[in-house]
Every structure is written in C-alpha cells, then in structure tokens.
Amino acid sequence: MFGIWSPHGTSVLHFPRFSLGTKEIQKEDPIRTPALPYGSEFAYSTNPAENTLTILLEAELAESADPQDTQYLRWRLFDDGGIGEVRIFPGEPVTGTWSQQELIGTEKYGKGSPVTATFTGLPINNSSFGKKKAVLYEYKGSGTPTKLDDAFFEVFFYKDGKNHPGDPANSPNWFYYWIPVMSFGKIENRIYSDVINVWLSTYAETDPPTRTTTFSMEASRPNVNTGNSGIYAFNEIITHENCHIDLWEQWWCKGCINTLGDDPEQDGYPNWWEDGAEGRAAGFSSTRNDKYSGERWVQGQKQHTAGYKYEEGVCRAKERSPLAPNWTLDIFDWSMSTLSSDQGKQWGR
Ligand SMILES: [Zn+2]
Predict the structure, then answer these.
(1) Longest dimension (CA), the chain
(2) Per-chain residues with Cβ under 5 A from ion ligand 1
(3) pLDDT tens sequence across 148-165
C-alpha cells in the first residue's frame, strides 16, 4: 500500500474559475473519493477568444506524507463511465495536453500533483459533453501504473459562446448542439440570426410556405409566455413557430402561396375562412387586410391586426404543450450560462 494516502487514498478535483463582467462564477465542490459523487462540473471557457477546457487535478496528501512523493502520481481521463476505458473525447477534433506529462507505454499520463489538463477545441457532437472519469495512479518508473482511485466529473459548453466547430458559423453553441436533439415538427429549414427585429425582442420568425424559421438569440432566453428558459424556451419557440406553419397549411396547403387562392385582399387568410364562424369570431373581415405582420391605425391608435392576434393566441397556447415534453430534453442539455436566468438544466445538479 502506498503510504501517503489518507485514509483510503483521496483525490481532489478543483474547479477552474471564470468570470464575466462583475459576476464571478466559481464552483467549489471538490470530489472526494471514494464516495465518487456526480455533479462536479467543468465548463469550456466563457471568454469568446478562448475555446479551451481546463481541468485541474490535485491529490490530497496525508499530513505524514513526504511532499516529494507526489512525483509518483499519474493521471488519465476517460469518457463516460470508463467501463471500456475509452479515452476522453473519442473521435472528436479536441486536442489535450497535460501541464506535466509522461509517456508510459503508448499512453500519455498527467504527472504529479497538482496537474492541469487543457483541451483545445470543442467537440462536434453534443453527446461528447457530460460524464467523464479521472483516474489516479501510482508509478515508480517500471511496470504498469497502479490505479489508486478515480472520480467522476462532467463537461459543459458555454451556452451563448460561438466556438463550436460546425455550421452555421456565427451561431451560438446552444443552437448548434441542440438542433440534433430537438423535435421540429414541420419546420424544415432552420436559420440563425442574432437579431431579427431591432425594435422588438423577437424569438423567431417563420415563412410558412417554405417551412423556414429564423431563430434569434432570444429563442434560448427566458420565454415571457411560459417563464421557462434555455432548452425549454427553445423547445417552446419551435412549437410556436411550427404552429404558424400548421395554420398556413390548414388554410392553403403545404408549400402553397396564397396569391392564386381565395384571397383578393392578399392578407394571407382565405375569404371562406374569414367569413366563416371562426374567422368572424376572431375579428377577421374578407374586405379588410388582416395580414399577420401588420399593425394598423384605428382612430389614431396603433393596433395589432386580427391576423396577429389570432395566430399569436393560438400559437402561444401551443407553447404549453410542446412537440416534445420539456423534461425529456434535460439529459441533452450540457449548457452552462453566466446568466442565472437561463442556466442549463444539468448544471448545478
Ligand atoms: Zn408567432
């Protein structure tokens, strides 16, 4: 038994510090093995100029230990669960270096304590975030390193950063990593734009005939309609925009434009529906332009059109029952935010 470990061998993972503005975020929840709790969390830098993940590993020595004995410590990091001892970030364009390292056989080990592992580049796949394992070994220069202990930790991306490796360029990390895990209904084309309307905090905008939706940064910020944020808000906005397509295709048809239909005033609503019971009840008229996007002046007052009021009423209600239940998305959310208002669902858990 290696004598410096107290009482059963203890390794401690410390958390990197990062800050934005005046608010400093610091996670100080060191893992103390052998309890191996989950919930020790490391995030890629929130500095937009950096795309690095830094993990500081440190073993605690017994009081009676010789500090020189840290020279015998070696470290490796593994992917989820470590059952197959898979290297961290397998198949991803992520490069890792240790602050001090040693090649033993064909494997690079971190050497000593404390030691820092720095990863550069974000993974392509959302599934590459999440649970990882750090393993501590003893090595005295020959043979195979002897495992002393291990501890689990989790890796997150900075939600509003733009340092993911894929398309679309200039889209935030949440948009890139969440697209593959969302249910989009009838939305076929997904575009990102930081700001859709400089005058309004517009979450998203849809062109129903082409089934194209443009999402803004607001689509992952708190949804004032439901009070949800982050991946839940995105899920609800998707459901809302899908609803606009549903309505359009109910009035016209998939891919159809209204210019050849029963719509002489060209407001997007067919006269048969505007003059029907539902249209009349919602304030439509077949002789007035009720176009969704427009506002109109009534006796000196600016008012939303019947089209806007009707569609927003119907589609905001749909946000209460999204295409996929919000809770089913928790396991896919590896985002962290510097804003507590839209924190990731697994950060801090
Ligand atoms: Zn809408």
Answers:
(1) 91
(2) 315
(3) 887 788 899 999 999 999
Identify which of 114, 49, 116, 121 has the alpha carbon closest to the alpha carbon of residue 89: 121
Sign of the C-alpha dihedral computed for residues 309, 182, 327 and 341 taken in this order: negative
CA of 242 to the centre of ligand 1 (A): 9
**What is d(CA 163, CA 46) in angstroms, rounded to the nearest whole number?**
10
Tell me how crowded residue 59 is: count the other CB atoms within 10 A of its CB.
Answer: 24
Half-sphere exposure of 34 (CA within 13 A, CB side): 8
- 3 state DSSP class of 265: coil
| Gap from CA of 263 to ligand 1 centroid (Å) | 21
Neighbours of 73 (CB within 10 A): 26
The answer, as to whether pTM is greater than 0.90, is no
Rounded to the nearest angstrom, the distance between the alpha carbon of 309 and the centre of ligand 1 is 9
Spacing, Cα 287 to ligand 1 middle (Å)? 24
Report whether pLDDT(23) > 80.
no
Domain ranges within the chain, ordered by starting residue: 11-158, 173-332
Owner of token pair 């830094």: 54
Look at domain 11-158 and name its CATH class: mainly beta
pLDDT: which is higher, 337 or 15: 337
